[in-house]
Amino acid sequence: MDSFGQRPEEAERRVLVQAAEIARLAGAWAHEIRNPLSVIQLNIELLAEDLANPQTPQERRVLAKLQIIQKECKRLADMVENFLAYIRPRPMRFGPAHLNEQVQRVLKFFAPKAAEAGIEIVDYLAPDLPSVLLDTEAFYGALLNLVLNAQEAMPSGGQLVVRTYAIGDKVALDLIDTGVGMDEKTCAQIFDPFFTTKPGGSGLGLPTVKKIIEAHDGEITVQSQLGRGTKVTVKLPVPPRLPAEPPTA
């Protein structure tokens, strides 16, 4: 028993119950913010439309202030959505899928952005990888988040190496960028909720990615060196083969 006369398992259960209640209340609070925030955004857009062609210095100043408010409202709306996605993830729908296909899908979407940012994509996708069980939409979102993070780490361009391979009873994906990298302290905190090094960031992107990977019974690790780049590794389990059905008599 602890100093309050509680058994360790009882104390742990109480903490879990309290954490769940806090998450429920926080989710309800964030959900309630959405409606008035949407009304504010809509009315600011209407005001901005009325001043789309400012004629006087005063109108130009008003329009500039409205644009700042629009930007901040969008940032707040994004933070609310990210928070809700983190604490209330949608149910996963798993099915057999090929890791290479999901990687190619993300890279195809990312290619124009990479070209514009001066980023060279080099892919080494191992052939004949075994299938894995994925919620393809959730995994796509997680992978796209990682690729966009790599882009942000290379503001002056660089190279992104993407490779897949089998390792034991798992398949793995490496994303290696030549970006600014992170020091050891920052690298140890990147999956902590609300930790961010980005101005205006929510600090929930990478924690959400980690939750999605772990929901697939996978794991995600990061290695980084300041000034040299970052390597992100995602490993996913290969499900055991189902026994063949006996022939029908």
Describe the fold and architecture:
It is built from six helices and seven strands. By secondary structure, the protein is of the alpha+beta class. It has two domains: 8-87, Helix Hairpins; 95-237, Heat Shock Protein 90 (2-Layer Sandwich). The strands form two sheets. Strands 2-4-5-7-6 form a five-stranded mixed sheet, covered by helices on one side. The chain has a two-stranded antiparallel sheet with strand order 1-3. The longest helix has 43 residues, at 8-50. The N and C termini lie far apart (61 Å). Residues 242-249 have low confidence and may be disordered.
Major sheet characteristics = 5 strands, mixed
- Indicate the CATH class of the largest domain: Alpha Beta
CATH topology name of the largest domain: Heat Shock Protein 90
Helical percentage: 40-55%
Number of helices: 6
> How much is the radius of gyration in Å?
23 Å
CATH superfamily of the largest domain, please? Histidine kinase-like ATPase, C-terminal domain
**Overall domain count:** 2
Q: How many extended strands?
A: 7
- The backbone outline, from C-alpha atoms, is globular
Q: Please trace the helix and strand order, writing H or E for each element.
A: HHEHEEHEEHHEE
Q: How large is the share of residues in beta strands? A: 15-25%
Structural class assignment: alpha+beta
Which second-level CATH architecture of the largest domain applies? 2-Layer Sandwich
Unreliable segments (pLDDT under 50, ≥5 consecutive)? Answer: 242-249
What topology, given as strand order, has the largest sheet?
2-4-5-7-6
